[in-house]
Write a structure and sequence with these properties.
The structure is a homodimer.
Chain A lengths: L3 E2 L2 E4 L15 E4 L3 E2 L10 E9 L27 E11 L9 E7 L3 E4 L9 E4 L7 H5 L4 H13 L7 E4 L7 H10 L3 E6 L2 H9 L4 E4 L5 H8 L2 E6 L3 H9 L1 E9 L3 H4 L13 H4 L3 E4 L2 H21 L7 E5 L4 H10 L5 E5 L4
Parallel strand pairs in A: 10-11, 10-13, 11-12, 13-14, 14-15, 16-17
Antiparallel strand pairs in A: 1-4, 2-3, 5-6, 5-8, 5-17, 6-7, 7-9
Helix pairs in contact in A: 2-3, 2-9
Chain lengths: 350, 350
């Protein structure tokens, strides 16, 4: 078979602190490379055709200048960026990986790529079965990294009790919308915020008891009326975090989710000003790194939660773009807050 | 018996945010009231002669303008302030409270006062036995509120494991010096900071592996060399907190102690700027309110820890003043950072 073009999204330029990526400048779409499926050396690995890529805010910290304590290593300039994706195996020299099976995990942003091994903990990739009731983009969203973040974080850290009150900021996002529904299943009163009226409408559809647009309604006023809070699930950081701390009950839990607040890492994350309340109210604030937490809850995630999503017990919205050439725009869209639901890019049909 | 003067320390004026109390202005010592031990109505309570009072930074928040979420209610203007103290019972109408027994708990800052009941959770007072090996001021310090704060906070929240590294700010204070020794007993490497060379010397005497004066040595440099940290015990807040967060390992615990950072409540507590690291490193930050936590650990505190203090297994320093008239100065001294060890006021000999 003749070589074919292997489109790649290359990391081109560091994103300055406080700024968002610029498509075509931060990353460039490159078509200069070709690949021959039959002859490309696999060196014991396997060749994957990328089907779908998740546009996660978590990609942004690795686009910033290198800094101590980054959640993931910085992307090397001139190389393809890497994120969570799904692909189909075209050729394999790897034990247990068959042609036609599906790989889920850390994939390069290129149309075709070689995964060297399933055993590198720094590039976790696993072989998964397609759930006939879920699309590939759903497997990147409500049952992918966003769902894992919501499920594992909630199970590990919420200590939720029936009748308690939770506030979820960015509640209509990929993570937040699942947290809202997990909280409702646990019998909590759910307050949720979002930045557009379309998202507020979606929040009501998925069962939030109180949903408001934080751009037109004062968060502190809503929390004063509908709180106080037993749990705050933070997807945004900044002044919303301070408002939530002020509205806590005794023994409240503040969960820093791996979403926007982490995206703002290295620059624009606004400080927590009311740390003094941690004593007065015996507060706990926890962050979690999904890279380490996911293994602990995967059995329950796959055995209990994923079937519930497949059976329609959870609602979710998707915001799908097509073509790897549009991945830069898609990521910016995910970071902009305009999206309703999880942003994914379909790179190819199977 | 003829009435005697009942000296009182009255709360006179709110302390502005960011300022420290001014003796003679914030509180005034008043001798206008007399009391007749034989005829003063007890209404079912008991009459206490105050022996010693603890000068806790925790008193300051109640001297500030009323604010939501204060650890303790604000002091009413014109009334005696209230803190932790020890007294001897002179007369009693209260079941189980005998003349000559000793009361420990929330006492008014006056030479003689009436405790209405042992059953008011908002004014916790209990009858204690004198430990022959411990002075009353020791029972207000290493085996009093400061010791309780260190012991209960450490047992509840440190999750300490042998070989881990802890940083204790304000390590020479009443709470910090006990935390340093509890951590050494648990087999940890202890880094501790203080603000004078005399305190640094004391830190070395009580076993800190690394002790430094944060005014003359850069905290970040010490932590870069001696860290990273599994645990940070925070007694100060502010930039030290940010430096400690930056120096954490994965899964580190940040314990906000009820000391100086709480004293700075309502004004000068500097913000936590590096909340983004909470995700990357799965950090936990906890505050605790002793008012609620102490009951959980009192059996171990009295049964195990207090005998160890009495047997000399813990070292402690005391900074003692005499006379209720000097309580205002003594509290300012405790807040100034000049003290080595716990500041107490001996109001009367038994």
């Amino acid at each position: 078979m003749a070589p074919v073009t292997n489109g790649r999204e290359l990391f081109n330029e560091i994103v300055p602190a406080g700024e968002l990526p610029t498509p075509g400048k931060t990353t460039v779409y490159d078509t200069s490379e070709t690949i021959d499926f039959d002859t490309v050396p696999l060196n014991g690995g396997f060749l994957v055709k990328t089907l779908a890529l998740s546009m996660d805010p978590l990609l942004l910290p690795s686009m910033r200048a290198p800094q101590k304590g980054q959640p993931m290593p910085p992307f090397p300039i001139g190389k393809p960026i890497m994120g969570v994706g799904i692909g189909v195996v075209l050729r394999s020299e790897h034990e247990g990986v068959e042609v036609g099976s599906h790989a889920y995990g850390a994939l390069s942003h290129q149309e075709y790529s070689i995964v060297p091994t399933l055993k590198n903990p720094m590039q976790p990739v696993e072989i998964i079965k397609k759930n006939p009731k879920l699309s590939w983009t759903a497997q990147l969203g409500p049952t992918g990294l966003a769902g894992e973040t919501a499920f594992c974080g909630w199970k590990e850290h919420s200590k939720a009790k029936k009748g308690e009150t939770v506030f979820v900021s960015s509640g209509a996002g990929g993570v937040g919308s699942i947290v809202v529904q997990l909280a409702k299943k646990d019998g909590l009163k759910v307050i949720a915020s979002a930045g557009t009226d379309a998202k507020v409408k979606f929040l009501k559809e998925i069962g939030a008891d109180v949903a408001f647009n934080y751009k037109t309604t004062d968060t502190r006023e809503v929390l004063a009326k509908e709180g106080p809070l037993d749990i705050y699930w933070d997807n945004v950081g900044g002044e919303t975090f301070n408002a939530a701390i002020e509205a806590t009950k005794m023994n409240a839990r503040l969960i820093v989710s791996a979403a926007k607040s982490q995206a703002n890492f290295n620059g624009t994350n606004q400080p927590i000003k009311v740390a003094g309340l941690f004593n007065a109210r015996s507060l706990t604030m926890v962050g979690f790194n999904m890279f380490f937490l996911r293994y602990k809850h995967m059995a329950a995630f796959r055995g209990e939660y994923v079937p519930q999503v497949a059976n329609g017990e959870f609602k979710y919205a998707e915001d799908i773009r097509h073509g790897l050439a549009n991945a830069g725009e898609a990521l910016l869209h995910a970071l902009s807050g305009e999206n309703v639901g999880k942003v994914s890019v379909i790179v190819a049909e199977e």
